[in-house]
Write a structure and sequence with these properties.
Layout (H helix, E strand, L loop, with lengths): L3 E4 L22 H7 L4 E5 L13 H14 L2 E6 L1 H5 L7 H21 L3 E6 L8 H20 L3 E6 L3 H8 L7 E6 H6 L4 H8 L3 E6 L1 E2 L5 E2 L8 H10 L6 E3 L9 H17 L2
Parallel strand pairs: 1-2, 1-10, 2-3, 3-4, 4-5, 5-6, 6-7, 7-10
Antiparallel strand pairs: 8-9
């Protein structure tokens, strides 16, 4: 059964004008706010800046997260690792690469401690793979982690800027029981992809979905005001048997009414799911 969740930070004011960042001053308050509008899942966000200060990465913080989840009926099934995009080990070398790989393993440990099963690795923007050597570094590292991830019942899911056929080629290098795709409806629309066509190529590997709208070749905008064809996208997801979560990674409320905006977006997703 799919849960409709939200990207952590969407129920808080923006941090330094960024559309997405860990909400340091309000993160605890997002749990009751989510419960109040009927959201049952949160996707944690983790930045490279102050990585080991994030409550996810501390024993005390993990305990507090568990209590908040229990008290407000919120699950945290997934994590978006913006830290991997901000400091991609596959673009570094030597001691810096080794250090970032150690960070990755520490993040896996922390996710297991709070029950996070899906770790989203964004291969976009600064994390975009630009040559075969970078891809090989990433694939080799993850293959070596494959058995450990499987034993923890955890998966790594990729958000990428690959063309559909190239994304499937990349995914075919990795074990389908441990590695999957994060399908971002808005990002695909911004790149001009047709949902029915692209999901016919790699839909069987999708493990997580971000609900977002973007202008063609442009930025994030409120749902139904950009290039995304949500009816087509939800039908394509249903056609390929997707039954995972739908995470609202939506445009920010300019009037500060964050909960009101997310409740509206949640209702849109309920309607789109009901059409299938």
């Amino acid at each position: 059964m799919s849960d409709i969740g939200f990207m952590q930070g969407r129920l808080s004011d923006m941090v330094d004008g960024m559309i997405q960042a860990f909400p340091w001053s309000e993160w605890q308050e997002e749990f009751p706010r989510a419960q109040g509008i009927g959201l049952t899942a949160m996707e944690w966000t983790l930045d490279h800046d102050r990585l080991y200060e994030n409550p996810l990465m501390t024993a005390m913080g993990q305990t507090e997260i568990g209590n908040l989840c229990q008290n407000h009926s919120i699950s945290i099934p997934s994590l978006t690792g913006d830290c991997f995009m901000q400091a991609p080990f596959w673009k570094e070398s030597g001691a810096e690469r080794d250090s970032l790989k150690e960070d990755f393993i520490s993040i896996v440990d922390a996710c297991e401690a709070v029950g996070i099963k899906h770790i989203v690795v964004p291969l976009v923007d600064n994390g975009s793979i630009v040559n075969p050597e970078q891809e090989d570094v990433l694939v080799e590292f993850l293959r070596n982690l494959s058995d450990d991830l499987a034993s923890r019942k955890m998966c790594v899911v990729f958000e990428s800027d690959f063309e559909p056929e190239n994304l499937l080629r990349f995914m075919d290098r990795l074990d389908a029981s441990v590695f999957g795709i994060n399908y971002d409806i808005g990002n695909s629309a911004a790149m001009g992809f047709d949902a029915k066509q692209e999901l016919s190529v790699y839909g069987h590997r999708i493990l997580n979905v971000h609900v977002k709208d973007r202008l063609l070749g442009g930025t994030t905008v409120p749902l139904k005001t950009g290039a995304a064809d949500f009816t087509n996208a939800f039908k394509a997801l249903e056609r390929c048997g997707y039954s995972g979560n739908f995470i609202l990674q939506t445009a920010r409320a300019k009037d500060g009414e964050h909960a009101k905006a997310l409740e509206y977006y949640k209702d849109l997703v309920v309607n789109w799911l009901g059409e299938n």
